[in-house]
Q: What sequence folds into this?
């Protein structure tokens, strides 16, 4: 078997599949970028495996992460989400996801796409790091600090620098696979 990044638990197929197929792969699709933005915010204070296990439920509950639909959620929909055991039932995170959908749409309107906006923080192409171990990987960087600051200025919530860096890793704005991982050279 090929060597993976050390954060992937041995025998955890959900984590392994996520690592092998998605993590660090550059994303330019608007819906996918919105999904990761919302999921990373939902993960705040929790483990990523919790969110991965709930991901399909999130897709159903959040109309497959269509920002134009999420932006229209009303009090009735919020109560429905708060009653859904398949997602993280946190009122602040749910309200933030709706506000973030509205801010996402505003960014799309201003920049032509969220993709064009978000990739500017890394100069339009992935930052390829050369970490040899998990201990070297930072929790945030100057780029995630700048992204966080600008997202907050635009009204986004649950977008602190650490969350932004996790988003950057997930969406492939940075390649943080360790150099001994079989995915390092593939992404």
A:
């Amino acid at each position: 078997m090929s060597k993976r990044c050390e954060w992937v638990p041995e025998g955890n197929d959900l984590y392994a599949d996520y690592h092998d197929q998605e993590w660090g792969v550059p994303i330019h699709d608007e819906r996918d970028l919105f999904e990761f933005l919302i999921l990373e915010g939902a993960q705040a204070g929790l483990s990523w495996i919790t969110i991965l296990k709930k991901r399909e439920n999130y897709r159903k509950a959040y109309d497959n992460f269509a920002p134009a639909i999420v932006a229209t959620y009303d009090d009735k929909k919020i109560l429905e989400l708060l009653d859904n055991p398949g997602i993280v039932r946190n009122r602040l995170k749910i309200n933030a996801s709706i506000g973030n959908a509205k801010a996402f749409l505003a960014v799309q309107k201003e920049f032509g796409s969220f993709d064009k906006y978000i990739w500017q923080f890394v100069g339009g192409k992935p930052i390829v790091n050369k970490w040899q171990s998990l201990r070297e990987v930072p929790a945030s960087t100057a780029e995630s600090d700048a992204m966080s600051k600008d997202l907050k200025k635009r009204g986004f919530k649950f977008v602190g620098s650490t969350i932004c860096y996790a988003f950057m890793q997930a969406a492939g704005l940075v390649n943080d696979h360790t150099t001994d991982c079989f995915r390092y050279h593939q992404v």
The chain is about 50% helix and 0% strand. The first helix runs from residue 13 to 21.
